Recover the amino acids of this structure.
């Protein structure tokens, strides 16, 4: 399929979603943008399914042997850490870059 050709995708929506979308001026554009934004936040390993295949689990277990989870002391979000590297304050770097 060429890059300029669009394809129609449909999905079922319950009444509450339809009511919420009723006031949106361009629903198609809104839905496209929402889907693209959601895809940027999908887990790269499970692709958003929340389930690892047995082989993915084997790879994850090997990765987890040297990595863990920690709560950020700045934003309080959970993130991956590497046991062989010191934890960096990414928020401080981001603030410095904006200034």
């Amino acid at each position: 399929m060429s890059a300029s050709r669009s394809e129609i995708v449909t999905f079922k929506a319950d009444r509450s979603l339809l009511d919420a979308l009723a006031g949106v001026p361009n629903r198609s554009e809104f839905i496209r943008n929402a889907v693209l934004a959601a895809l940027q936040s999908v887990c790269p390993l499970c692709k958003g399914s929340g389930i690892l295949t047995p082989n993915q689990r084997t790879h994850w277990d090997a990765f987890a042997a040297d990595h863990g989870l920690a709560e950020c002391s700045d934003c309080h979000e959970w993130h991956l850490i590497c046991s062989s590297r010191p934890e960096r304050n990414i928020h401080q770097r981001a603030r410095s870059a904006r200034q």
User: Anything to note?
Assistant: DSSP finds four helices and two strands in the chain.
